[in-house]
Amino acid sequence: MRQWITFILGFLSFLAVAIIILVLYVGNKPYSETEQQAIDRARSEQLIEEVERAYVYTNTSASVTVLGTNSAGELMAVFVPEGDGEMLTTPLEDKITAQQAREMALAEMDVKDILHTKLGMESDGPMWEIAFLNEEESLNYVYLSASDGTWWKRILNL
Q1: pTM of the predicted model, to two decimals?
Q2: What is the average per-residue pLDDT within 89-100?
Q3: Does 2-91 match 98-155 in CATH topology?
Q4: CB 3.0-4.6 Å disulfide test: which of 57, 66, 72, 104 passes with 120?
Q5: CATH says 2-91 is which class?
Q6: How many CB atoms lie within 10 A of CB 46?
Q7: HEC secondary structure over 18-29
Q8: CA-based angle 43:45:51, to the nearest 5?
Q9: Is the CB of residue 109 less than 8 Å from the CB of residue 117?
Q10: What InterPro entries does the annotation carry (predicted)?
Q11: CA distance 136 to 139
Q12: Helix (H, G, I), strand (E, B), or coil: what is residue 147?
């Protein structure tokens, strides 16, 4: 009897782990496909040659930010909108880096844990979005201009 209970518990544990892995894979698939389509589009229009990173950035509409180098070897950001909209590019050589944006947020705000730092295109130009938890475990978003590091918007204590 004890062997059957051990077998059933082992089988159920294996089944639970398999279902969790399947859900995570299927749940992440749309993001992966969207990112790959944006990379392919940026490459096909020869805006970027080597891709370092790509991620989905959402404001009023979703877009994918593709970071990498162009054919001249310059570090670039390509903002690929949803659908067939016009892609925007910006060179990153003279811009605030992600590390500098995080350091500015850490110096100014009460930060316990930074969740992510993403570059995205807003109405006023390229902005760094820094999401973090404060000491009270509240979710916060701050936006810094990638051009000069000025604070654009703060959404605090969610």
Answers
A1: 0.79
A2: 90
A3: yes
A4: 57
A5: alpha beta
A6: 9
A7: HHHHHHHHHHHH
A8: 20
A9: no
A10: Cystatin_sf, TseB-like_dom
A11: 9
A12: coil
Residue position matching structure tokens 């993001």 = 31
Dihedral (Cα; 130, 72, 51, 133), 10-degree rounding: -10
Q: Extract the tokens encoding 97.
A: 């880096």
Tokens of 111: 């930060």
Cβ-contact 119, 57 below 8 angstroms: yes
How would you class 66 by CB atoms within 10 Å of its CB: exposed for 0-12, middle for 13-18, buried for 19 or more?
Answer: buried
Report yes or no: 67 and 77 within 8 Å, Cβ to Cβ: yes
Please name the fold of domain 98-155: Nuclear Transport Factor 2; Chain: A, (3.10.450)
Task: Report yes or no: 55 and 37 within 8 Å, Cβ to Cβ.
Answer: no
What are the boundaries of each domain within the chain? Answer: 2-91, 98-155
Report the C-alpha gap between 126 and 143 in whole angstroms: 10
Quick check: helix, strand or coil at residue 116?
A: strand
Torsion of CA 69, 92, 88, 46, to 10 degrees: -20
Distance (Å, whole) CA 113 – CA 139: 10
pLDDT tens per residue, range 105-145: 888 888 888 999 999 998 888 999 999 998 899 999 999 99
Q: Which of the four pLDDT bands, split at 50, 70 and 90, describes residue 45?
A: confident
